[in-house]
Amino acid sequence: MILCKFFPIISKFCYIGTCILILSACTPADSSSQNNTDNVPPSPDQKFVWELSWTDEFEYEGLPDSTKWSYENGYIRNNELQYYTKRRSKNARVEKGTLIIESRNDNYNGHSYTSASLHTRNKAEWQYAKIEVRAKLPSGRGMWPAIWMLGTNIENVGWPACGEIDIMENVGFDPYIVHANIHTEAYNHTKGTNKGNHMTVDAPYEKFHTYTVEWLPQKISFYIDGNQYFTFNKESSDPDVWPFDQPFYLIINAAIGGAWGGTEGVADSIFPQKYYVDYVRVYKPTWKQEE
């Protein structure tokens, strides 16, 4: 993304390249974590097929499945205005087969704005994957929804060395434009070198669209409704350029304001705003044996 974003264990408060990093202990992923870190092709051009390995279809009611999702909690990054709540149904719940992340201006426990950020860290992590998220976005001036990934080694190397994959970002003051970006030590916004692209999307706040990334050992490609609009090719094995040969975890959040989302202010009249997620599907590449 244009601005760095962090899991609360490693909170990074960022504004135009100025960052304060706060480190604390992190529990390693348990043996149940979903990953395919051993699923590495014997050669770059090895043929493969995508196989479904993890999914949440949201075919239940109530809070998000705690075996799959955890919560960020508090004020996290980017001078954003929202307080991310934990296990509060007004901010994150499943209804009628859809995850709803609701952003509110409700003065909850003294916090003017509340929202939710769900992640899979320590529960599901992947090295190379195809990730599909079918979603309908919130909108209005000040909203900043995202679907993105961070390297699980973030507590050891920090951002941007851990790598970041932004599958979808949108800001409410520019509602028809959806962005994809990658961030690495060599390519990131603080140096003016980040790599990405954007695409005009038909009413993403009124219609569901499918946001997809295909992450492979030699490239990362981004799609909206099957239309490819950005690819980042592996230029070298230097981890400053390509930190993507390691596990990453997934984050889905709705921010309010901040150094990008709040560039043109926040319109209080838009709340509450709902971010709908129909499903999240993760496929692993299964490499075929040479004949």
From TrEMBL:
It comes from the Bacteria. InterPro entries: Beta-glucanase-like, ConA-like_dom_sf, Glycosyl_Hydrlase_16. SUPFAM superfamilies: Concanavalin A-like lectins/glucanases (SSF49899). It comes from Fodinibius salicampi. The keyword Ligase does not apply. The keyword Plastid does not apply. Keywords: Hydrolase, Signal. Belongs to the glycosyl hydrolase 16 family. Residues 36-288 form the GH16 domain. GO terms for molecular function: hydrolase activity. This is Glycoside hydrolase family 16 protein. Pfam families: Glyco_hydro_16 (PF00722). Residues 1-29 form the signal peptide.
